[in-house]
Design brief:
Number of strands: 9
Strand order of the largest sheet: 1-3-8-5-6
Number of helices: 1
Radius of gyration: 17 Å
Distance between the termini: 65 Å
Shape: globular
Order of helices and strands: HEEEEEEEEE
Strand content: 35-45%
Low-confidence stretches: 2-16, 58-71, 167-171
Helix content: under 10%
């Protein structure tokens, strides 16, 4: 009986069900996004809360420049991507909840800077549309970071794409 109670406790607390965090769980391990319009498939399953994701990044006042709200105090499952703008151009980031286990209540944010010093630029919270995207003015040579997470604790799969006005196949 003691063994059964111990096993029940372990399973109910998730101790035996722990998952390995994805490689891009931390901002300093952000995965490079292709800047040619190529879509990548990713997941935030196993992602964890990181230092700075608890309200210490200090988002700008307001609602992310008119697109969604900044949810700094409830992030527990983010994954990170990075890219450096090859040109000064109009760029679009699109995130789509996909697959057999799609991420729910998806949010994504754009930052500039370095992994230890981020400046928040934009935020997009999926309300009812999927895919969701925003357009911004990318500046040549600027390093950007994109954080994708689910509001509350939802985890699942998604696609992310960076496309720009200089992509040959952009339409």
């Amino acid at each position: 009986l003691t063994l059964l109670l111990a096993l029940g406790f372990l399973f109910s607390t998730g101790s035996l069900l722990a998952q390995t965090p994805p490689a891009n769980d931390d901002v300093c391990n952000a995965i490079s996004l292709m800047v040619d319009g190529t879509t990548g498939n990713y997941s935030n399953v196993g992602a964890t809360d990181q230092p700075g994701e608890d309200g210490t990044i200090s988002p700008p006042t307001g609602d992310g420049l008119g697109n969604g709200a900044w949810f700094e105090n409830s992030i527990t499952n983010s994954v990170w991507f990075t890219f450096t703008a090859a040109n000064t151009e109009i760029a679009t980031i699109t995130v789509t909840s996909t697959g057999a286990n799609p991420i729910g209540d998806l949010v994504f944010e754009l930052f500039s800077g370095s992994c230890g010093s981020l400046t928040p630029l934009r935020c997009q919270d999926f309300q009812t549309s999927n895919p969701e995207s925003f357009t911004f003015n990318a500046v040549m040579g600027t390093r950007y970071f994109v954080r994708v997470y689910s509001f509350v604790t939802n985890r699942g799969s998604f696609e992310i794409e960076y496309a720009s006005s200089s992509d040959e196949c952009a339409g």
